[in-house]
TrEMBL record:
Coiled coil: none annotated. This is DUF3298 and DUF4163 domain-containing protein. It comes from Maribacter cobaltidurans. Residues 36-137 form the Deacetylase PdaC domain. It comes from the Bacteria. InterPro entries: DUF3298, PdaC, PdaC/RsiV-like_sf. Residues 162-234 form the DUF3298 domain. It holds the Pfam family DUF3298. The lineage of its organism: Bacteria, Pseudomonadati, Bacteroidota, Flavobacteriia, Flavobacteriales.
Amino acid sequence: MRYPFILLIFILFLIGCNEDRSITFEPLTFGIQSCQECAIVDITVPEAIGNKKIDEVINTAIREEVISILNYDDEIDASSINTAIESFQSEYAKLKEKFPEESTKWEANVTGEITFENEKVVTVRLDYYLFTGGAHGYRSLRFLNFSKEKGTELRTMELFKNLETFQNLAEKEFRTQENIPESNSINSTGFMFENDMFYLPENIGFTEKGLQLFYEQYEVASYADGPIILNIPHKEIKRFLALPIS
């Protein structure tokens, strides 16, 4: 009589193992472009529309990143993208009031996309451009990596079995790409790594082609050099990863 019970347990186990970890995304858009006295704001980011824990985690992380990009007014406690837009507009309005002759509009553009997804991991990239006066605007990106299994956002150290071992690989790949002899210091060709020691960038994320390391302008080189991007193929990073990517 125990067999039906054991069979039920086995079936439930199989269902758990085959849990659907797919995520459905829809574009979420915010924008202010038609107001003559307003800054230009154009935001389109992916929104996870399911009811799983990971959906909420992804949406919260994206929201917080967009808020941090836009929030220019310390007097406004931005808790949503809309209030962050208000913060951005408020600071622009203060500038216009102080300098009425200022004709150049502020601009904020944020676009998001899914750059990688499998059963274990999903990566979102936010590309953004900000112009708040001066000679030029600022363009950059932010990677957000998530574990579907844990339902959490992944820190850089959680991506790898051993961060130091991966960093050694990344330095080797970086030297090859930038033609820096192995016997020379990492800054010997004009880079500006602090203490003349190689380190990983703040922005690291998965793409369909591999792992992208994105050094922002000023992070390790001059503004004129622009961002420094290193792409390492999946086959080369596979053995270093804490989570499977294929």
